[in-house]
Amino acid sequence: MHYQLKIPENHPMREQLEGAITSLLTFVHAGTIYISNNGQSGLPIIVTFILKKNCGQCGDAVEKMAKKITDCYPDFIFKFINAFRASQGFKEGFPYLIRHCTIAELVYYQPDNKVFYPLDDDAKELLQWTKLDFKDKLGDTVSRFQKASADMKDNSLKEAGNSMCVALWDLYCCYSWLLIGEIGEDMGRPSLLYEYKMVVRFVPYLKEILNYDIPEDKEIIDHLSSAHTYYRDNTINIEINPSVLERAKVKFELLEKEFRSLFSDYQKEFKSKMKGFRNQSFSGQSILTEMPSSNYFIGHALSEISRAINGFMKTRAVFCFGYNTFNINEGVKTKKAFNKQFPCYHFYLLILSTEYRENALPLLQSLIKEKFENRYTATLLIHRTQNLRRQSHYQKYFLNKVMANGILAQFESPYSIYPINADENRDIEFTRNYWKNRMLACEQFLMTAEQCTEPDEALVKNALVQQAVQQVAVAQLDLFLSYHPAVYSIPYMFRLLECIPAIKLPFSDSQQDRKLIELLSANIDMIKHKDLNRESIDQSNLLYTKCEAFYNEMYTLGYTELQRLDDLKQQDEIQ
Questions:
Q1: Measuring CA to CA, how many Å separate 227 from each of 141, 163, 166, 231, 362?
Q2: How would you class 452 by CB atoms within 10 Å of its CB: exposed for 0-12, middle for 13-18, buried for 19 or more?
Q3: CB contact burial 83-104 (16+ within 10 A = b; e otherwise)
Q4: How far is CA 300 from CA 294, 295, 382, in A?
């Protein structure tokens, strides 16, 4: 299977990145490639190649070979990392890898290579090791600075110059540990100036504190470096200027404060990323106000699913308006920081088709589930493009939002999607009236069902409860999504309701509840053929109780949502 380079369409330097990476891939045996930063806040764009296992290349050697190409892209920083060192680095929680080399930054993947995707990994343990490293490294550095300060008080200027050089040098090494990581084969730290230049390349704004291009700051680095050489080798004689030491002391304190701030930001970023790994989801309801985020795995999965859909029916476009991850082997726990398999996803997709297929929705949902062996499943909305303009206002609003905000999974037609000219604002009054009418209908069905108490009335009671739940479902779908389904089967509408976070469905995965869902989902035409005396009224009563409670919860939730929509409308009118 061919895995493509997937740089986000909205990346400001997409073309340059594609050109650079494509050129490098002609001789670099990369297993995975990551791109982090977007050149914002003055930070450089970092491109990391993790080499294939046993590929016969090492990171430092590749970096030297690639220099002619990488020098052509001064706005990018290229790193080439051996697979074994990357593996060890992830296990030990190297900040560079976690900041720049996770699925959030992944743009290229070769089969059977490792990707950092901790589903069940102990994030606290990884962060704890990093905190200990931070404490040890900075503690040693501060001790050297304190010695330099003591030497200055004692007027031991040559010793103070050496101690201050080592303290400042170690502080830049702390920056290197956080920003660059101990991931190269060449671990040499040749000089304070070398470490300084390495660090400010990754964080240019540190030049605001100490800038070698400014004569006064150049004097500090050169003077301290000479003092260190004198003290170490005694090969030169140097007079230490106390004013330079005082300026160096101020610079160290500012740099130490900034380093602590950077590490604090890293901890927040780490926790946010780990939470994102565990809770990869985007509710379908959110599509009305925001765009879903994507990553390499999501893009790859949507590409595969779109090809399957296109093979099943003629399709103009496919939009994703929600997703979540699931684990096929729920009972299996893993402590691996790497996974060789993509996550399993459930997608909510809008399909704009150009042909009619009978029973297309259930057939296509089953096809996706079977074709990808449960790795990908989908809840589908299928609409024919020629009918878009004839949709009523409320339907147009939802479709417009999905087409504007959703992830475009497939768009291969040479023709554009027909504009459907929906108003920007929802018709809240229509939504209120529609919701009230559906809930009133549900109440009437439930009141009638309550009167069915005899065994021979069980099927009738089930049918009435089914109608009641259908009314609740379409009411909530219109209220929260502004969407009206064309299919009214209970399992299908429940799957749509699952993409609304506020709604808790009345049935669990227990054996008892599965039986109740079967009763609720049964074809109403069964009343014409089945023996009415053979059904259990006790099961029907239990079904009624659950669905009545669901109605009451949705009634309260609905009024809260209507109030929220009214408040938003008033705010918009004021503005």
A1: 18, 9, 10, 6, 78
A2: buried
A3: bebbbebbbebbbbbbbbbbbb
A4: 10, 9, 22
CA separation for the pair 503, 466 (Å, rounded): 18
Residue that has been written with the tokens 């705010």 in this structure: 571
Q: How far apart are CA 326 and CA 279, in angstroms?
A: 10
pLDDT of 182: 61
| Under 8 Å between Cβ of 487 and 361 | yes
The pLDDT score that the predictor gives to residue 486 is 83
Pick from 110, 112, 115: nearest CA to 98: 115
pLDDT band at 492 (very low <50, low <70, confident <90, very high): very high
Residue 176: CA count within 13 A, CB half-sphere? 19
In angstroms, the Cα distances linking 401 to 91, 397, 417, 425, 433 are 42, 6, 14, 11, 22
For residue 450, give the nearest of 524, 551, 380, 358 by alpha carbon. 551
Rounded CA separation 40/148 (Å): 37
d(CA 26, CA 65): 12
What DSSP string describes 273-305?
A: HHHHHHT-EE-GGGGGT-PPP--HHHHHHHHHH
Give the per-residue pLDDT at 240.
80
DSSP 228-272: HHHHHH--S-----HHHHHHHHHHHHHHHHHHHHHHHHHHHHHHH
pLDDT of residue 149: 92
pLDDT band at 392 (very low <50, low <70, confident <90, very high): low
Four-residue CA torsion sign, 49, 54, 55, 57: positive
Per-residue pLDDT of 212-228, as tens digits, reads 999 999 999 998 988 88
CA atoms within 13 A on the CB side of 98: 28
User: Phi and psi (nearest 5°) for 324?
Assistant: -155, 160
Indicate the residue type of 70. T
- If you count DSSP H runs as helices and E runs as strands, how many of each does the chain have, helices first? 18, 11
